[in-house]
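Q: Hi! First time doing this. I have a protein sequence and I read that you can turn it into a structure. Is that right? Here it is:
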Amino acid sequence: MPVWQRIYEEIDNPDFVIICAAQDTGGEAVAGPIFDAAGATYIQIVDENHRISSLFNFVNVPSSAWIDETGRIVRIDEGTYSQIHAISDGQETITFGNDVYTPALKDWIENGENSPYINAPEQVSENIRTHSKEQLKADAAFCLGNFFRVHGHNDLADHYWALAQTLNPESINFFRQNLTLTEEGSAGNTFRQRISEYISQGKDYYRPLDI
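A: Yes, that's right. Below is the predicted 3D structure, encoded as structure tokens:
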């Protein structure tokens, strides 16, 4: 977030708006301090039930959609990293992100529909992941788990959160959200092991960036 705040200030264009939606069941109490620490001046939303991820079928965060001044989506569902990052536990280092996304974004802001980085409507449609029946059930189970947790029924909450992950095992969002309630948090050994498994199985942590 601090890096995106810097980029937002660099762009300094009143016609460009970042809407950042934190997918976190912890709500404002958890996400608010993160926004505050970043000094974010763009629009900030806390999405406790992951509605945005569910609607667009995003399976990981941060993911993005570029929406032009007419309301048309011109890019969607790709890792929104402004630079290359690395996570290391002393034995293994996992790198993710890229250094080409930000220049492409700036080109789009400067050149609009003439930017080579916008996708045709057909490509945008292809990049929107189709929901399976199991994934739709998983979204409902996840929301039920959140509801029960808010009302103090932790056993039922755990049941429905586990069901959501069983129905949609590809969702890193659900997996990481559950880890936030553990002592090690969402970026510890369990998370790194899951990502290593993804990579070893030839799965994409994020869809390949066609830039």
